[in-house]
Every structure is written in C-alpha cells, then in structure tokens.
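Need tokens for this chain, all 230 residues.
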Amino acid sequence: MSRLAAAQKPGAGVPAYLRWVNRGLGRRAAAAAYVLRLSPNQVTLLSGILSLAGMLVLVLAPPSPAAAIGASALLLGGYALDSADGQLARLTGSGSVAGEWLDHVVDAARLPLFHIAVLVFLVQAGQPPVFVSTAAAFALLSSVWFFAQTLAEKLAPGGEAPRPDAPVWLSFAKLPYDVGVTYLIVATSAWMPVFLTAYVALFLFTAGVAALSLVRKYRALRAGVRTPVA
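Here are the structure tokens for all 230 residues:
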C-alpha cells in the first residue's frame, strides 16, 4: 500500500469521486491483486466482468431496493478495478501498450453499454419514450466523448498537458459527470421518479460539458497547442 501510495497519478482537476474515493478503492484492490499474483490485464477483465454483472442485474432482476443497490455496488466495483489495473501495472513495472489498449477497449464498451442497459430497464418499466430516448442519447454521447478525448490525447502535440495548479473546487464542479456518480444513482432505480430526475439531470449536465470540451479540443488541435487535461 505504501508503494502504491507513492505511485499515484496527479489528482489536481480530477473529478471528486474518482480523485478521493475510486482511486483509494482501486489502490486497495491493486494491493490485493498483487498479493494474489494477478496481472494488470486480468484485473482489467475482472473490471469488465463486474460491470457487466451490474448491468445484467439492472436489466434482469425484478425491481427492488436490493437489486438496485446490488447493481450499483457491482458497477462501482468494476469502476474501482478500472483504477486498480493501472496502479498494479505501475507497482509491478509491467505496464505495456497492449495493456493500455485493452483497458481502453473495455472502457469503450462499458460506457455506452451501461446506458443501453438503462434503456432496456426503462423500456421494461414502461417509461415514456422521452426517457428511453435520453438513455439512447446518453449512450451515443458517452461513446463520442470518450473517443474524442482519447484521440485528442494522441493527436495533441506532446499529448495533453497536466494541470497541477487546478483548484480543489474544480474537482467538485466535475462531480456530476463523474461516472462513479452515474453508477451511484443506479441505487435509486427502485424509486423511479428519483432515478429519472437524477439520470436526466446528469445527461443534460454532461451534454453541456461535453459540448464545451469538444469545442475547446477542436480549437486547441487546430491551433496546434497542448490542451490541459483539466
């Protein structure tokens, strides 16, 4: 744990849940994986399996508080392991381009697939088309934004620049579109009005932030400058 604590990514400007909760959970999972002699790629695959299990519970289990909390816990567990694989790779010095590629492939599938699971859940619950359409739009948005961010990191001269001077409040400002918050609201899915209100609010906020981010990245790439991560 002490070695992992000394090999953390900078936290400045990172969304609050990821910065103060998920990375800590991932650190403990990475330590456990190290003791169990798991490889980073195995942790990546376990992350994907947990996430998929959470989506299946959301879609297949009869609606109940227990199913809602269980689905949320599995999704958050997959998210924690998504942080653990990179930490384990740094701890063991076993990071590789292939491992990074695998991690991105799992992420690229997980993000839109979650919103498709929400779409199926809403259809099964007989919700109006406007909410079902929101889930479909969220799936598209998450896929486009993830691809745009990943590609910008590769195309920007020298990669995206870190923001060590980012203020603490920025982490809290980014909290609404932290995927951990999205997974947390799944715990309210047994109470449909609460879930729908939170889910639609997250979509609208994320869409606004994504639009600003895409414009900023396009302008930075057009000008040939590095864009800050935060």
